[in-house]
Amino acid sequence: MTGTEQALTILLLSRGNIHNSTLLSTLVNEYSVDPKSFVVVLFGGDTKAQKDDLPAGVEEMSWNDALSLDDAAIKAVILQSLYPANARALREFAAQTAVSYAKVGIIITDNEVDLWKSHVDKFGSLDKGHTKTITDDMKHALAKIDNFCCTYNPFGQTLEEILARPLNISDTFPIRKLLPEPTDYAVFTGRVKDEIDYLERLANRRTIMVMSKPLPYERKRVYVRDLLRFCLFGQSRYSVTVLFWERRKPWKTWDKVEYRLIMIFVAWLSPVLRRFGRPDIRIRFLPSLSRHEYMTTLLRCYALIGQRRSGVGAMTEAVRNGGQLVLERGSYNEQLFSESWKTPIVYRNNNIFQELVDTENDEVDFERVMTESRDRFWLFYASIFTVKPSD
Amino acid sequence: MTLSYPYVKSTFTQHELGLVTELMERENMTLGFSHSALCTEEIARRLGLTQPPQRVFLTPSCTSALEVAALLSGVGPGDEVILPSYTFSSTATAFALRGATLVFVDSQPGSFNIDPQAVRDAVTPATRVIIAMHYCGVSCDMDSLSAIARDCGAMLIEDAAQAYGATAQGQAVGTRGDVATFSFHHTKNLSCGEGGALVVNNPDLCDRAAILLEKGTNRSQFFQGLVDKYSWVDLGTSGVISEIAAAVLLGQLQRADEINGARIAGWNAYHAAFAPLEADGVIAARPHVPEGCAHNGHIYFILLPDPALRPGVIAELSRRGISAPFHYVPLHDTVAGRRFGRVSGQMVEANRAGSCLLRLPLWPGVADHVPEIVAEVTAAIEITKAVA
């Protein structure tokens, strides 16, 4: 590298990863990161078959060109999460370029930290034990990387526990929007939301989504039983639509039987019980949804009953658009939303469905969350990205 | 906020106005037919028609050009004309007027151009004409259609109403058939309000075409000094365009690259914006342009995943000031189609286009508004699903 060239900040991303567009769009459009201040290096995949659309102004550097850089030419290397494929790519990249691991940072997405913690709980430390999800490349990276872009509570402190050393934690991570295209997002959160709200009001309906994605039955057992009790004994001036996800993976026989029995019972009995003053309950099973369908479905939801961990993107979007978020006390997600972001959470006391039809939405000042996140992000990345704080 | 994105926008400028003004200031605006002559020269130049027997005739509309093409084909009762079901009524009615039997065939997926295999399957000893309608300004598979026409001795007619400026393998669309017709209707890339052109590529048909267009007289030969007076010699129609319309058209033809280029930019912007939505399944498909074809950016369409969504999506977009119309009702499924024609083979693609296709606003300058229009289309689809 000559003296006149600027060192590069590299975003090392997996080719064809559907989360690339939301990350890049969030950095450029929400966090005012100058797109000229970094380059994207895509690894893996078929370069001919897969096309990654980058936001305007963001440049891509080929993998081979990136390997020809040296440590002096590299200002920082940023990874999106850490998993076997990008850990392997990072190891190869570091071996070729001799880049210092002190320059490497990981943007934590959501559930990887819990996965690593489970490994430590099971084997005693990250070094020990071997699973498909925690490879030698990952252990190698985690032993050397100290920079993590995540909230301190719950992720940062867990990371410090499992890695057993103090780390450089940003205490925030880029809060993404489900639709990366800004015009799309504006139309959906404006016009589509208005129309959906109107339809829901017209139908005098409250729609509640149970978990943000398909999950094992045991995670939602308590809510399914709540639904049964609500059907039998509840009172509601609203009709209630409950959205469950179609279960794709096999599950335990008794779980399946119990789940089906309850669903059949609620679906068939609800119209009968409605005549005796019981709530009008409808159940819908969601198939795999496109990004836009998902967004529309979320906008429709009065409340989202979230899982213990993962699904932060969907929950954020629900809260940002005025939805109620129901979370278990002490869960990763509860710590994130309630303690780090201080957004209102609904807790299950007696029957969650009864509570949700009895209470009105809390106003959520999500702009405050975003402002705090931007401030922390800029502090963390001041030395890495060229930021435009005036925007 | 209500938007204002019509389906078409006028592209007339001071240039066309200047040509019309200049014409109207003359004492005799029909004298010399200067503007129509310049138009035919410009069209011939654009199509690469350098051989004198090939001729371009301006007509009052593409429909009238097709009617003359039907007369030139000599079809009558008992003869069969193979044409795509997914086309405008003018393609069919010109031949139905001559008493021929229409044979509707299916289209190819993606381009919705006539399917050559379906044409081959539909050929009978009575087949006299095959019509290639270049949908959206994308060329049909002319190599295959030419071969079929040659094999069965049928006349090949190109309905290139939408395809002025398009090419296939570097050759202008409208130069492969025995005759071709173009439209300069208000909705087309280049317009004079209402107008058309008949291009005669088969030299054997040129003289008769001139007679048919001159009310059945040999007036054209009279002007060339070939006969000392002109008289009624054949069937015919009034197939000439007014000089005022020709003046407007001349201005448009001279700006063809500018207008088509700006439309193609809009088309490309749509195509890029809809790619992830197609991958996500929000829309079922985007248009497909076969290898070697260069279209003219006439229409950008999408296919919706469910026919039931289309009325709601159109209404939603209309409420927001975005005009996004459907297109043809397949001819085999119309009252007149059942009366004057028959179906050959399955109509899978024609029916799909007929029920799921949605056209989007496309005019010079639309490229800047594509992100907003695409977002609105996506929103309209999702709202319609939610209502359903």
UniProtKB/TrEMBL annotation, chain A:
Superkingdom of the source species: Bacteria
Protein's name in the database: Uncharacterized protein
Species per Swiss-Prot/TrEMBL record: Roseinatronobacter domitianus
Taxonomic classification: Bacteria, Pseudomonadati, Pseudomonadota, Alphaproteobacteria, Rhodobacterales
TrEMBL record, chain B:
Taxonomy, superkingdom: Bacteria
CDD domains per record: AHBA_syn
SUPFAM superfamilies named among the record's database cross-references: PLP-dependent transferases
Molecular function (Gene Ontology), one example: dTDP-4-amino-4,6-dideoxygalactose transaminase activity
The EC number(s) this enzyme carries: 2.6.1.59
Pfam families per the UniProt record, alphabetical: DegT_DnrJ_EryC1 (PF01041)
Keywords: Aminotransferase, Pyridoxal phosphate, Transferase
Family of this protein: Belongs to the DegT/DnrJ/EryC1 family.
Name used for this protein in its record: dTDP-4-amino-4,6-dideoxygalactose transaminase
